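Continuing from the previous page of notes. For each protein in this section, the sequence appears first, followed by its structure tokens. Read the first protein now.
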Amino acid sequence: ADGVRYSHASGFCYDSAKALVLTNAHVVHGATRVSVVTSTGERYRGTVLGADAHTDIAVLRMDTAGRRVPQAPVVDQDSLLRVGDWVVAIGHPIGLDHTVTLGIVSSLGRSLSAPRDTQRTDNSPRWADRVRFIQTDAAINPGNSGGPLLDRKGRVVGINTATAAHADGIGFAVPARRALRVAADLEKGQQAAHAYLGLELAPLTPAALERVESEDEPVRSGGALVHRVVPGSPADAAGLAVDDVVVAVGGKPVRDVAAVLAAVDDAEVGETVRVTVRRPAETLDIEVVA
């Protein structure tokens, strides 16, 4: 009657000393008031310190009046996770408190968004357009968003985020290492910093491959086609052009669009990134300040 809408989601404390909670940005988007209820039933007022739509990560601070809330151990090394590893998802699906589901890591490095490396210029969030997800068959349902994905040792390896529409047994989590990297900015009240080149990329077509290949220099590793260069962007300033074929980043071959975006995401803001492109009759190494 009062027009107020309520929703439930999940999260976990990752810093007990500061009473900080990690959850999804889409969970708190548009929220006017946030409450955090612990597994033991304590309720605390929450303040959103920051949210990042690019990774769908948000940081909350609980007003605990000095009480320490137990924190979850978080793994900050993606390399510890392998396809086939057992994982557990914990959350609050469809209002069912503290639900635990079991599954395995189905895949790593999944991308769910259209291929792009561009910054948003409108007010419509594109959730997690800069994330390489952990895919799992552990059941993730509405209300699980923001909850932890745990390994067999009980350590947080991901933040549950999404499920595949019209499919069962396909869920996605933001890797914990990426979430911590973003949280380090958000907890200070800063915007999360992301390396940015300013490219819109498309899959490499046979026609584009034929245009830049030669018998002496075949393109063996694959690559990505530059569909658009954002005017005024770092890529534009460095001289990248439409129809360039990106074949390596930082000296490492890239097989597709996802591999290019992954390499860019691994770069630090302000770092010089060497982008190798093929053009008809030439191969160029172009340095771009991310």
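Done with the first. The second protein uses the same format. Note its length before scrolling.
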Amino acid sequence: MAAGEKTPLTRDVELGGGGKAAVRTRLRIDNACCEAEATLAKKTLHAIAGVDKVSVNVVGRIAYATHRPHLVGAQALADALNEHNLGASVAAAPEAADNVEEPVDYKELAFVAALLLGLALGYVIPSLLVVVAVGGAVPLARDAVRGAWLQKRLDVNALMLCAVLGALALKDTGEAATVGAVAAFARFAEAECLRRVRNALADASASEGAQVRATKGDGTVVDADSLIVGDVVIVRAGERVPCDGVVVSGKAAIDESALTGEPLPVHKAKGESVSGGTVATNGFVKIKVSATRAEDAAAELRRL
């Protein structure tokens, strides 16, 4: 691959010669939210004749299948996954879909808030504790049944469901409501963390396929893809770091949230490394390029 050339994200990649060569297809799995769906997707695809290898990225809701197109086509793989209601589709143009920011699930947030409020008020109005316990048990039962069906084993949802039902059987409504509300909060917190990770990945790859400009040390403005190791570039407040490098002069606060999730800007000075795709929130630095844009940290995320 020539210097500066990017690894294709969506194109089928030939793995062998001739008309029966294997290809690697990228599939979106919109209904994959935990390891249970990933396990189901792997089992489903592995069971299809002509599929050689499968990998699933739960966070990105993406599956990669290496298969023989003369035996099974890409759409057939998606159809097989959709028989299990996984919301699969062939990712013909994932950049457009992946770069759409996923919003907060306000319905789930409202549900969790209602349970927690009911739990707080339940010690004043005891009848609310039963409502909270039942409300928390419903999604636990749903997830426990789905986990038992997909993974053929009981998971933590089944354990917590037993705790809720056991407490109700013992007429300990306070304990039952607490377990149900805490379980709902934990489920929402996990989903929110995954949502933020997916949005961070999308933000890191937002510049993929678009022209990114960089100012070299002599003031020349060039395409960031043309930078080579050893070039010196200038990054000012509000500008995106074009690629990985080391600060050779100046100081700046760098927003690395798109790569690391760190919410606060990190101060960088001479001798410290910076990553492509991050943003300078204030300051001024000169950076010596240590990796081209096709090989930097953001490029690795774009390949996920």
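What the second structure shows: DSSP finds nine helices and eleven strands in the chain. The longest helix spans residues 173-204. We return to this in next week's lecture.
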